[in-house]
Automatic annotation (TrEMBL):
Any one Gene Ontology molecular-function term assigned to this protein's record: transaminase activity
Name the record gives this protein: Aminotransferase
Taxonomic superkingdom: Bacteria
Enzyme class at the top of the EC tree: transferase
Gene3D superfamilies named in the record: Aspartate Aminotransferase, domain 1 (3.90.1150.10), Type I PLP-dependent aspartate aminotransferase-like (Major domain) (3.40.640.10)
Gene Ontology biological-process entries: amino acid metabolic process
Membership in a protein family: Belongs to the class-I pyridoxal-phosphate-dependent aminotransferase family.
Length: 397
């Protein structure tokens, strides 16, 4: 009986696979002494003043439902944060929705705009979450491989895809600074892409969750150039080391946000009230909390980048987020899952197989350097030992 009912479930579910990243992370967790550079999770704790705001909120019995769009205080704080940091102007009363992490923002936005059969353009390699959500809603993902262009989508590839797929395209998804490559888009690149996108009547879903973690130029938002088309996704998870509080947000044109707000309401009613109070403190009085964390990530980036390239793993130097996307050198298993399993078993370091991130990812691995310098030093020492041993063995063979 259960089996028969399982067969009657939503047909798109058969297209979905469990997250490769979580699966690999769980599999390698059982190896004794393993160092995991797998998950995209800040190793810093939430800053004290934010924790205090959360505690005060609990003590003040802020344990009731919040307005579905988010508490007015948090929405005002987000609006000011976006204006101060990225020159974006959003009316806190009508253009912002507070979500349960960026994850819910992704789910609510795609669910609100997709009709079955719509095409969604996705530059790859990219954080994989958008793909199952698009599929679940009956959309067809159209991948644009950016690996030949330094992992940056060029206006030419974009224009080609838009011309080829025409009116069937409902939206394009961007994520920058990019998980898994660490690449980000410069002002001139955003300007050029916006020039192409402006001519098309499509949504531009822009996940800028790593916007506070850039190591060169400050972040430029796509919404600065395309305010009428962009659905902006961001949140407190990475900027303020608040992954467990689950606070994200959506920003966009008024009418779009009004309709999206109904989907968001049916999904979760409202984000957790005390977490919203803590996030208000983060965006209001901790606007620059990220600065110190960013400086620390930058040191780690420099260290890991130098070590990995010295060992023969080529990769773009990350300009944002906290990932390194490295090519497996010749002489090692080129299938990324095989390499990662071998590395986990023999070097006791877990990294994510590149294939999880779509076309352009083959033969690569993603290393998360959101770990302490001591952990990273030991991980690099182990990988170096593994690489040297393998090379010596292949010379002897
Ligand atoms: C690009 C990107 N978007 C969204 C998320 C999820 O963010 P949140 O924890 O706020 O749901 C992640 C998490 O790793 C991410 O890398």
């Amino acid at each position: 009986m259960t089996h028969v009912l399982a067969d009657k479930m939503k047909k798109e579910l058969s297209l979905l696979q469990p997250s490769d990243i979580l699966k690999f992370d769980q599999e390698t967790s059982s190896i004794p002494g393993i160092i995991k550079l797998t998950l995209g999770e800040p190793d810093f704790n939430t800053p004290e003043h934010i924790k205090e705001a959360g505690k005060k909120s609990i003590d003040a019995n802020r344990s009731h439902y919040a307005p579905s769009a988010g508490t007015p205080g948090l929405r005002r704080a987000i609006s000011r944060f976006l204006e101060t940091k990225y020159k974006l102007r959003y009316n806190p009363d009508t253009q912002l929705l507070v979500t349960t992490g960026a994850t819910e923002a992704i789910f609510a936005s795609l669910t609100s705009i997709i009709n079955p059969g719509d095409k969604i353009l996705i530059p790859t390699p990219i954080f994989p979450l958008y793909i199952p959500i698009a599929l679940l809603n009956g959309a067809e993902p159209v991948f644009m491989d950016t690996s030949d262009n330094g992992f940056v989508l060029s206006p030419e590839i974009l224009a080609q895809a838009l011309n080829k797929h025409g009116k069937a395209v409902k939206a394009i998804i961007f994520n920058f600074p990019t998980n898994p490559t660490g690449v980000t888009y410069r002002r001139s690149e955003i300007e050029a892409l916006a020039g192409v996108l402006k001519k098309h009547d499509i949504f531009v879903i822009c996940d800028e969750i790593y916007s506070e973690l850039t190591y060169g130029e400050p972040h430029v938002s796509m919404a600065e150039y395309l305010p009428d088309q962009t659905i902006l996704i961001n949140g407190a998870s990475k900027s303020h080391a608040m992954t467990g509080w689950r606070i994200g947000f959506l920003a966009g044109p008024e009418e779009v946000m009004r309709k999206m707000g109904t989907v968001h309401q049916f999904m979760i009613t409202s984000a957790t009230t005390m977490a919203q109070d803590a996030a208000q403190e983060a965006f209001e009085n901790g606007m620059n909390d990220g600065t110190q964390m960013r400086a620390e990530y930058e040191k780690r980036r420099d260290f890991v980048y130098q070590k990995m390239t010295e060992m023969g793993f080529s990769c773009p130097k990350p300009e944002g987020a906290f990932y390194l996307f490295a090519k497996i050198p010749e002489g090692f298993p080129q299938k990324s899952i095989d390499f990662c399993v071998d590395l986990a078993r023999n070097a006791k370091v877990a990294v994510i197989p590149g294939d999880s991130f779509g076309p352009g990812s083959a033969g690569r691995i993603r290393i998360s350097y959101a770990a302490s310098m001591d952990v990273l030093k030991e991980a690099m020492r182990r990988i170096e030992h593994y690489v040297t041993e393998k090379k010596q063995r292949s010379v002897q063979a």
